[in-house]
Each structure stands twice: as C-alpha cells, then as structure tokens.
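Page 47, continued from p. 46.
Same chain as before, 118 aa.
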Amino acid sequence: MDRIRFITHREQRILLVDCSHCTAAEIATIADLMPEFVTREPLGSVLLLGDFTGAQFSRDAVEHIKISAVFDRPHLKRSAWVLTENLPKAFYDSILSFSARQIPTFATREEAMEYLVS
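Result:
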C-alpha cells in the first residue's frame, strides 16, 4: 500500500502513514495494515509519522487505530501525528489511554519530521 511507506528526512528513515484526506473506512483499513509494516522492524527502532490532515474519523476507525497503536508500541522509537481540528479530543485521549503512548501532534509534516529526527 502506497499510503504506508518509508521516507528519509535528514538521513533518517521515517515510516510515513499517510492518512491525509482519507475516509474513516480507509483509516480503519490502513490501521489494520500497520502492524505488518512496523513489526518487521527491530524493537525500539521505528520513527513513525501519521499524517491525518483532512481525514475523517469515526468511532470504528478510532478502535482500529487503538489496536494498531498497541501492536506498534514495542517497535517504536518515537512517533508524531499531523492533525488539524478533525480528530475530536475525546477520540485522541482514548487512543493515548488505550495504547499507553504519548503521541505529540503537529500542524505540518515538516514540524513532525523535525521532531522525530531531533
């Protein structure tokens, strides 16, 4: 899937999960595919960038994200999301609580990538 791919920023490899402008159903599908990509990588090694610019969310899509976030956790070094006001705070808080992760959010991909490689 071309929405999940590795990119390079400042000579560091980042796993980009491009959910920009996706429907809630597309987000659920992408979330279901995520563990396959992340769990191939060594523990504690993945820089993960989720871009949800203009995406639509539903309760079901958030449930898929929550499950994926738990599977991914051991393999992540750091993660960041690009979000606008499209994800209700209750959904975001639910994802953080369920996954026991801190996922900082940024307004642009560039800001998020800078955070990941810093």
